[in-house]
Design goal:
By secondary structure, the protein is mostly helical. The protein has two domains: 85 residues, Helix-hairpin-Helix base-excision DNA repair enzymes (C-terminal) (Endonuclease Iii, domain 2), CATH 1.10.1670.10; 100 residues, Orthogonal Bundle (Endonuclease III, domain 1), CATH 1.10.340.30. Helices cover 57% and strands 0% of the residues. Helix 4 packs antiparallel against helix 5. The longest helix has 19 residues. The mean pLDDT is 95.
Length: 215
């Protein structure tokens, strides 16, 4: 995709949604960290349903430790892989209390050192909680970047680095959200809804999906 087309691609997404936000519900950096960790192989809707009552009573690492692994398992049992996730969240809470004074660190390496926290989760926390211009490549962003020609890559890290390189500075902070939302609601996995896509004419995907009822 040409440089001018990349700028226009983001400009249109930004025009349609000037202030994009994560669809995960959170109240502070710690609850965001937990929510993102729980969202692996789960939907934001499903995570929110479980964390809404949880975060009403647990919003710090110490409170999570006080709840305990068994209590957390009960709270998140509707989320996939809840046993493993509960174990990781409790282990991470212990590290946050013991090594970081109960605060979520702003450094990628420190975040990735936490159990259950990979590069994608760290990027979301850095972007959403701390305003860093990071791009967390999930399945939606990976698909949109490759399908449209915006940033082709064979793995999430390659796409992330390419996106950071080609995304114009004014759009870096919101890029993560615009691309996820576009992939979730328009550029869908099985059948992209090209007929209502704001950037269809800039996109490399062929053939375009016709509107229902069109030949």
């Amino acid at each position: 995709m040409k440089k001018a087309d990349v700028f226009e691609f983001y400009r249109r997404l930004a025009e349609a949604n000037p202030s994009p936000e994560t669809e995960l519900e959170w109240v502070n950096p710690y609850t965001l960290l937990v929510a993102v960790a729980l969202s692996a192989q789960a939907t934001d809707v499903g995570v929110n349903k479980a964390t809404r009552p949880l975060f009403a009573r647990v919003s710090t690492p110490q409170a999570m430790l006080d709840l305990g692994e068994e209590g957390l398992r009960e709270a998140i049992k509707t989320i996939g892989l809840f046993n493993t996730k509960a174990k990781n969240v409790i282990a991470a809470a212990r590290i946050l209390v013991d090594e970081h004074g109960g605060e979520v660190p702003r450094e990628r390496a420190a975040l990735e050192a936490l159990p259950g926290v990979g590069r994608k989760t760290a990027n979301v926390v850095l972007n959403v909680a701390f305003g860093e211009p990071t791009i967390a490549v999930d399945t939606h962003i990976f698909r949109v970047a490759n399908r449209t020609g915006l940033a082709k890559g064979k793995d999430p890290l390659a796409v992330e680095l390419k996106l950071e390189k080609v995304t114009p500075a004014p759009f870096l902070h919101g890029a993560h959200h615009w691309l996820i939302l576009h992939g979730r609601y328009v550029c869908k996995a099985r059948k992209p809804e090209c007929w209502r896509c704001a950037v269809a004419d800039l996109c490399a995907f062929r053939p375009k999906t016709p509107a229902p009822g069109d030949s």
